[in-house]
Amino acid sequence: MKISIINGPNLNLLGSREPQIYGSENFTSYFKKLQKKFRDIELFYFQSNIEGELITQIQKDGTNRNGIILNAAAYTHTSVGIGDAIKAIQVPVIEVHISNTFAREKFRTTSFISPNAKGIITGFGLQVYDLAIQSFLL
Ligand code: DQA
């Protein structure tokens, strides 16, 4: 099974960015743990701060992966383009958020991803990625 994790803007700063909200572990180290835990799954990781690059990656992964785990970060709340990209592909997308977006500012309760996602996992810290992988194994 091939699963892609796609992270959006500012998630390259995990570990140092607002650690009280996002924790103090960087994603590179966490990704290594995921690879170790899920040895039988081919995991791929892509991060970009650029909306169009995220859309291009979703289109590519929509043809050659079994699933996509997407944290579109701030673009979750604004991007019609990313929402449309998910509609355009057949591969199931799990929307994840490290923080509980419903417990924060009102604008974070809007998502252009959710209507087209297979499911949503939010608010469990970095473990949301682990839980999303597990959801593909059910
Ligand atoms: C986030 C929540 C978003 O509202 C925010 O813009 C992010 C990260 C999360 O993982 O909790 O950058 O997607």
Number of domain units: 1
Overall mean pLDDT: 98
Distance between the termini: 13 Å
- Looking at how many chains there are and whether they match, the oligomeric state comes to single chain
What's the gyration radius in Å?
A: 14 Å
Low-confidence stretches: none
From the helix content, strand content and strand pairing, which structural class follows? alpha/beta
Say which molecules are bound, naming each kind only once: 1,3,4-trihydroxy-5-OXO-cyclohexanecarboxylic acid
Strand order of the largest sheet: 2-1-3-4-5
Helix fraction bin:
25-40%
What does this protein structure show overall?
The chain has 138 residues and is an alpha/beta fold. Helices cover 35% and strands 19% of the residues. It has a five-stranded parallel sheet with strand order 2-1-3-4-5, with helices on both faces.
Helices and strands in order:
Elements: E1 2-7, H1 19-22, H2 27-37, E2 42-47, H3 51-64, E3 67-71, H4 80-88, E4 93-97, E5 119-122, H5 127-136
Parallel strand pairs: 1-2, 1-3, 3-4, 4-5
Report a brief summary of the structure:
The chain is of the alpha/beta class.
Record keyword descriptors for this entry.
single chain, 138 residues, alpha/beta, Rossmann fold, five-stranded parallel β-sheet, binds 1,3,4-trihydroxy-5-OXO-cyclohexanecarboxylic acid
